[in-house]
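Sync notes, pocket subgroup
Present: LS, DG
LS reminded everyone that the earlier model was apo-only. Rerun requested with PBG included. Inputs:
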Amino acid sequence: MPFPATRLRRLHATPVLRGLVRETRLHAEDLVLPLFVQSAACTSSGRTPIASMPGVERLSISAAVQEAGAARALGLPAVLLFGIPEHKDPGGAGAYDDEGVVQLATRAIKGAHPDLLVMTDVCLCEYTDHGHCGLLRADGSVDNDPSVELLARTAVSHARAGADLVAPSDMMDGRVGTIRAALDEEGFGDTPIVAYSAKFASAFYGPFREAAGSAPAFGDRRAYQLDPANGDEALREALADVQEGADVLMVKPALGYLDVIRRVKQATRLPVAAYNVSGEYAMVKAAAAAGVLDERSAVLETLTAIRRAGADIVITYHAKDAARWLS
Ligand code: PBG
């Protein structure tokens, strides 16, 4: 029935009516807070601000335990750990060291907050002196298969430290299957894999690379991360990860890739996580600081849009603020 029988404004009339017909809801339970943990002593508070990401800090292990407790108290279900090691080398040995920064932080956080989920980023780029996500060949290209072996060692080491979920972000081929087999072999058959399946070679990782000190020393990541122009290929990556045993699929970044989130969800029906990345966070913070956006409405609208596109889980540096605003 066309207008005037149909009047869509009828259901917009009051806040209660709008709430009744709202299709997408945002809860603290949907959000994951990333944490940067560093092993070297920083300030006496154990917190070093990250200039490009106001409100985000590099944390000592004890500050990370505090921050994890604050996240839990706000109703967030999980944190995602990134490590900043003291030493880097060509093989990224710090990534799979049982006494590495993520392993130590995982044990400390699980010890203090056993019901908070600890998810760990599995990658070599924060641990290699060249900043690439895998081992280099003599010509400077990333050597896929030996890198995958080290990523599997890293994932097992995280699981042994108590990680509840492991999240490989390297974009090497075949890593999900190899990690699954290694976890199963080592007795971690119940540890889920959150695969960064559709991770695009994006300009929006800039602030993260400053935070984690993981910018590639030469070249870029386009030989392994996805071309921002490719949606069908993103779907092939996701389907390959499903076949290899991924439990959750991730799309990253979120905002420029809402169509990919929707397509991955529709094609797989697996839980989908979207990573609202550092550059997306930095833009909102900069605009809010300049007085051109209302931060609270912009953040809640953005996170709702990511959920509406099809994401079940949103990884975001806004998680604590959003949880406060939603409570
Ligand atoms: C790589 C990794 C990156 C991010 C998460 N994991 C950076 C990259 O690929 O260069 C980016 C996260 C963000 O920008 O918030 N281990």
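DG: The chain has eleven helices and twelve strands.
LS: The pocket of PBG is lined by residues 121, 123, 125, 169, 205, 208-209, 214, 221, 277-278 (CB under 6 Å).
Action: DG to write up.
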